[in-house]
Amino acid sequence: MKLRSFCLLAVMTALAAPPVPRELRFVIPGDPRSFDPLHIEESESETVKYLTAGVLVRVNRATDKLEPELAESWTLTDAGRTLTFHLRPGLRFSDGTSFTAADVARSLTRALDPKEASPAGDTIRSAEGIPEIRVVSPQVITLRYKVPKPGLDRLFDGIGIGPSTPPAAGKLPASAGPFFVAEYKRGEFVRLRRNPNYWKHDSAGHPLPYLDSIRLDIQQNRDIEMTRFLRGELHLINRVSPDSFARLKEQRPTAARNLGASLDSEFLWFNQAPVRTLPDWKRAWFTSAAFRHAISRAIHRQDIVRIVFGGNAHIAAGPISTANTFWFNKALPPLPTDAAASLKLLVSDGFTLTGGVLKDRAGHPVEFSLITNSGNRPRERMAQLVQSDLAKLGIKVNFVPLEFGSLIERIGKTGDYEAALLGFNNVEPDPLEEKNVWLSSGAQHPWWPSQKSPATPWEARIDELELRQATEGSREARRKAMDEFQKIVVDQEPVIYLVNPDYLCAIAPSVKGSNPVPSPPPVLWNIEWLRLE
Amino acid sequence: MRFLAIAILAAVMLASLFAPRLAPYAYDAQFRETPNAPASRIFPMGTDDIGRDRFSRLLYGTRVSILLAPAAACVSIVLALLISVPAASRVPGVGLAVSGLTTICLSLPWLFLFIILRAKLPLNTDPSTSVLLTFGLMGVAGWAWPARVFAAAIREIRQSGWLLQAQAAGIPPWRIALLYGLPHLRSIAAAQFRVLVPAYILSEASLGLLGLGVSDPMPSWGNLLQDLQHPDIVRANPWILAPLALLVIVMICLELLQSPPEASL
């Protein structure tokens, strides 16, 4: 009797208990600075935006194809000048209010308003001014540009549409994406809940997303993040460092996922700007393509891949990662390593190796400083390997890790440096946004920023190609320009590319439905389809 | 025990001074086929993550740290003594002025001073110059804490009975200071020295983040201790703890040397 009562009580308790919450947990390294999808400036806010903000179209991260989202269709007419979106009928925000073309118009007008200084607006603004926005009906909206804008429809993957009425003071904004921000405790966590009005359903008619909620814990320390994951407190880590990946593979091999080469690249370059702090004879080395080629060939990239990244990286072939399948120029040969050829190149350029010291024509021993951001272990290790490789050619490299602020000041403002080793974290496969880096007049142009006119014919050609790819309407024509651009960069090596680190992440076996890809957000891009078991 | 302490310190000093002869490899030699190797006959303490012999690096690193950190601590203590004497002066306002200077010095954001120093130094500064400058600046910047302790001790001495008796006996002030005052401050100076040496060794490691201090590939206890930030590496090769163990042993030996003979029994 006692046993029966106990069993009954157990069954009743089980029935009365709330269902196991389907809450996905992971960590973001800091507090999101904004929940406004038009004012996203850092990765934490970007993650929240991706999960909550409604977008008109979405780039499928696995196929790289543009897919309908809140807009069920769209058309590009008038030779790429006019873009018309047709919204799905019956759309609603998470608070139940209707989602119409007026909401889209208001979001776009806000984004394009110079007073708002919205980064989202910068992406859809044209050099010839802002587009004319016209609400044709509650479900149709048209944008008309004066000149064609390349890749226009794909840009709307990043434009989150918010409600026309801003949230009341102290309230969190409603959203039209799969989740909405339900709770935020500064320094602790952000909790997202499932948007009950989200439009998407699976083939069986079940409403998406499958998850009830997502908790984003705010935790800066990456070691603690990994420890929590290994303890089972987190379901995924969006990006794992090469060091932690070795630990993960050892302790939870089923959770360790190498997604292949990322869009990121690690590289070094020499300062070619005519600054007072750089002696003319050193500048003469740095502006010589033969010198740069010699340095490039002396670097054992395979050792960088194996030692620094534990095999989790690919040797770079040029300015665009090999993982960027559409834009990478497949005709480019792999960057060679050949110390003997390197020395030959230096000798042909007037250098001599005497007593283990490489000297230029005037007898100056070849010595330069190499800066990178301190605390970045892979970069410090890469610099130490480069230092050792070049020592074999009689070149003395003074490696100086610098605090990030000082580093940026030297590179971006004073120009007081000789060589720098840094990386580029690329989110967007389309090279459109990199124009400012490559134009010789650009403030972020690495080897000689803000040039009044291109210093060499090949730099002038890069400028032409960059402008062409930024104005051509046809994707194929843009690719052709980018192919030539990549060839020039490899031929001249103003930037010496080293590796493309692999995208490493951790996914607990309890997470089902994931299809991780080597670009951000690697695991979350198909968030609607993720389940927990 | 004092004899043992002297023997250990002498052994450490000799090992570091003769590092070029004792170390099996150069401190910057990279054995790229064997990164993170465990301890073996070829590599007595294993290799670091780019394949450099940990034993050779420890020997060379000891040279830098065991000579420069105590030297910087001595500079701080001498400066602190010189500054704290006027603090105990009977001249109105002098004590207050010195005390104010000490407070200002303690509240200064020294980190920014070091950042400015790095900004002013040429990037191609010779590593040994950078090391000497770093320890020198640490020595100069670190006077304020010991000065505050010395000033309090001197004030206490001034109110002591034995000083009054000595003054009443007509002993000249310089003789009182030299024969009675300084021995009284010796134990405080020794205690401050024991605090400052490990503090400077660890500060040197932190300054590496600013591009100051001992720059790679030159080793020091400070930059060797940075590996301890990664517990996985320590688990894989416990010899990574060797610089820490050596630091602790040296500090214990210094403690034993400074204790009176009867206390060390």
In short:
Chain A has helices at 2-16, 43-52, 101-112, 119-124, 152-155, 222-230, 242-251, 280-286, 289-298, 301-308, 339-348, 377-391, 404-414, 435-438, 457-471, 475-492, and strands spanning 23-28, 57-59, 66-68, 71-77, 82-87, 132-137, 140-144, 179-185, 189-194, 213-218, 236-237, 256-261, 265-270, 313-315, 352-354, 357-359, 367-373, 396-402, 419-424, 495-507, 511-512, 531-532. Chain A is an alpha+beta fold and 533 residues long.
List the helices and strands and how they pair.
The complex is a heterodimer of chains A (533) and B (265).
Chain A: H1 2-16, E1 23-28, H2 43-52, E2 57-59, E3 66-68, E4 71-77, E5 82-87, H3 101-112, H4 119-124, E6 132-137, E7 140-144, H5 152-155, E8 179-185, E9 189-194, E10 213-218, H6 222-230, E11 236-237, H7 242-251, E12 256-261, E13 265-270, H8 280-286, H9 289-298, H10 301-308, E14 313-315, H11 339-348, E15 352-354, E16 357-359, E17 367-373, H12 377-391, E18 396-402, H13 404-414, E19 419-424, H14 435-438, H15 457-471, H16 475-492, E20 495-507, E21 511-512, E22 531-532
Parallel strand pairs in A: 1-10, 17-18, 17-19
Antiparallel strand pairs in A: 2-3, 4-5, 5-7, 6-7, 8-9, 9-10, 11-20, 12-20, 13-19, 13-20, 14-20, 15-16, 21-22
Helix pairs in contact in A: 9-11, 15-16
Chain B: H1 2-17, H2 19-22, H3 54-87, H4 94-107, H5 110-120, H6 127-141, H7 144-158, H8 161-168, H9 173-207, H10 221-225, H11 231-236, H12 242-258
Helix pairs in contact in B: 1-3, 1-12, 3-4, 3-6, 3-7, 3-9, 4-7, 6-9, 7-9, 9-12
